[in-house]
Amino acid sequence: MDRILRIKDVSKKFQLFWEDVVIFDKINIEIERNELVLFYGPSGSGKTTLLNLITGLLLPEEGEIQIAGLYLDLIPDKDKADFRSNYLGIVFQENNLVSTLTVTENIILFQELCEYEVENKKERMEELLEKLGIDHRKDSFPTQLSGGEKKRVAIARALSTNPHILILDEPTGNLDRESADELCNIVEELFQTTDITIIVSSHDQKMKEIATKIYKVGSKNVQLEEEYPERKKGENIEYRNIATLEREKEDIFVEEEMLLEEE
Ligand SMILES: Nc1ncnc2c1ncn2[C@@H]1O[C@H](COP(=O)(O)OP(=O)(O)OP(=O)(O)O)[C@@H](O)[C@H]1O
Ligand SMILES: [Mg+2]
């Protein structure tokens, strides 16, 4: 099975006034395409920081991060957004929905901003709104939605460009038990019925019950705690070829060669 993410000896620190605060000290993580990976740990342990490193929103001081064969630090800053829109669906802890746009407008805008042409945009959006149980809210504005509905819209938006990896930061954080359970069921169903790899940060016990790999984040470390191979996707899932990758890889290697020539 293909490896989709590799984090090798990665260290990250933040500067707080004149002091360096080390968040991660040489962490190592490997994720395959058929996995639903959970990162859990106390508030402030570095879960969001870790997801920001994986999406290239932050760069590590040391070590390397490889996604689907691409080295993140070799992607020029100007191409980072394209990289994200090609491969990743990100659901931020605060959702980041545009408050002046309706549910459908939020999704359409996102599809339009995608670097490549998303096929059958409208059909894809309608399919997702139905799958996530929010089609009856499609003309509402974010402020008119409950916390659980907002989260489902943010997930639909993230999936609307057909990413290979879905990244969820504390998706059940602000939800009541019932909505949190519903959301966990949605995540499990998405995982089991499509070829998407899911990376989630959460404290939720129910997430622990569906994850194939559980990592504990804390004390400058990310440690593999449990593995449940029996929960991995069934054999019948067909994985899309990550075809655009080859083109991007070539571009990146060309840039690297040019840099070497300039030196
Ligand atoms: N840009 C930054 N500059 C300085 N310190 C930061 C920055 N971003 C995060 N931190 C610090 O890094 C630590 C980890 O933060 P992070 O947001 O990753 O934690 P978290 O595990 O996601 O917490 P929560 O469960 O509350 O969302 C915290 O102590 C935070 O204050
Ligand atoms: Mg966080």
Offer a quick outline of the entry.
This protein has helices spanning 47-54, 80-87, 103-113, 121-131, 147-159, 177-193, 205-210, 244-262; strands at 3-16, 19-32, 36-40, 62-67, 70-71, 88-91, 165-169, 197-201, 213-218, 221-227. The protein has 263 residues and is α/β, with parallel strands linked by helices. The protein is globular and about 50 Å long.
Mind telling me the CATH superfamily name? Answer: P-loop containing nucleotide triphosphate hydrolases
Number of strands: 10
Order of helices and strands: EEEHEEHEHHHEHEHEEH
Structural class: alpha/beta
At the fold tier of CATH, the topology name is Rossmann fold
CA radius of gyration: 18 Å
Could you explain how this protein is built, in words?
This protein has 263 residues and is an alpha/beta fold. The chain is 35% helix and 26% strand. It has eight helices and ten strands. The protein has helices spanning 47-54, 80-87, 103-113, 121-131, 147-159, 177-193, 205-210, 244-262; strands spanning 3-16, 19-32, 36-40, 62-67, 70-71, 88-91, 165-169, 197-201, 213-218, 221-227. The N and C termini lie far apart (39 Å). Bound molecules: adenosine-5'-triphosphate (ATP) and magnesium ion (MG).
Keywords for this structure?
263 residues, alpha/beta, Rossmann fold, six-stranded mixed beta sheet, 8 helices, 26% strand, binds adenosine-5'-triphosphate, binds magnesium ion
